[in-house]
Each structure stands twice: as structure tokens, then as C-alpha cells.
Amino acid sequence: MQESLDTLATRLDSSRNYEAPPLHLWHPELSGDIPIYIDAQGDWYHDGTRIERESLVRLFASILRREEDGEYYLLTPAEKWRIKVERHALLVTDISSQGEGDAQRLVATLNTGRQLPVSAEHPLFLDDTAEQVAALCLPHGLTALCTRAAWYRLVELAQLRDGYAVLTSGDYEFRLPLA
Questions:
Q1: Is the CA virtual torsion 46, 52, 54, 55 positive or negative?
Q2: 50-75 CB burial, b ≥16 within 10 A, e <16
């Protein structure tokens, strides 16, 4: 019998580390499939109904991992539930620039509100399945596709150099082809 979304959220929240749950330490056996789906626009659904509570989406996103089999799982120390993801688990909704010159850093804001630096640890890449729009590599095998606004912001922040639009964030560089 499928448990309610609220019951599941309560159980997950009881073991929650809000900043960085140690997903790399959690390796439970597969508990099964749960009818949670993330569509291409980053909207989360349970049993075909859109999950409206942002706090619930943030909670689930914080315990989401993509494994080597290409599947996505919600994890706790004792449970592992497989979910479906259409394209990317998350979205980059904004890119901001902090600092100047060599100290300039690009910071990506995700649709969950989490902020991450664009860096070698969290590099950008062009997604072939999304018309060459940039996406960001995240911890735990996840990726986040740039929204149109974030993509335009990246282009705006780029500097023309050697036939490329170059984004610089600290010592990390990413080249956007001009075509």
C-alpha cells in the first residue's frame, strides 16, 4: 500500500540534515518504486498530482541521488525509493556574479533556493538534449538545466575571447561557442 506524501515527508524529515545530508554514506537496499516524477520543467508530481509545497520539494531534492545505473533515488539511511526524472532533476533559475577581476565568482541559484558556485567542482556543460543550453553538474550525480533567464544571464556575463564567449568564475573557465 502506498503511503501518503505527508507521511513519507514526515519520516524523511525526522532524519534530515538541512545543509548537507550525508548521501554518500547511505547505501540501503532498494525499497521499491514510488510514484514521484520530475518533468522537464522541474515540476515534481506524486501520483500524477503536482507537488505544490515548496518545502516538500526542497526536502526531496536534498535527499535525491542519481546512481551509476542512471536511475534517481530518494534516500534515507534505511530506505531507497526510485523515482522518475524526465530530463534534469533541478533547474538553475539565476546566475549572479560576485566580486571583480580574478576574484569574480559566478553563483548559480537552483529552483530549490540552494546556491552553488560555478567551478571545477560544479562545472557547466552544454546539454545536447536541450538545444545546447547550459546545465550545471551538482553533487550526488545530479544536474540542473539553466532556465531561459539563467541562460541569458550567462550569455550576458560572458566575455568575448578567441572566437568564444568565455565565462570565468575564479580559476574556472567555460567557453560558449559563438554560432
A1: negative
A2: ebeeeebbebbbbbbbbeeeeebbbb
**How far is 151 from 163, CA to CA, in rounded Å?**
19
**Tell me: the pLDDT tens digits for 27-75?**
999 999 999 999 999 999 999 999 999 999 999 999 999 999 999 999 9
Q: Where are the alpha helices (DSSP H) in the chain?
A: 5-13, 54-62, 148-157
- The two beta strands, 143-146 and 90-98, are parallel
Residues 15 and 77: beta-carbon distance below 8 Å: yes
pTM for the model: 0.85
CATH of 90-177, one of 2.30.130.60, 2.30.270.10, 3.30.1380.20, 2.120.10.10: 2.30.270.10
What does the block give as the cell for 22? 550525508
128-178 tens-digit pLDDT: 877 778 999 999 999 999 999 999 999 999 999 888 899 999 999 999 877
* Alpha carbon distance 152, 165 (integer Å): 12
Residues 65, 70, 151: CA angle, nearest 5 degrees? 75
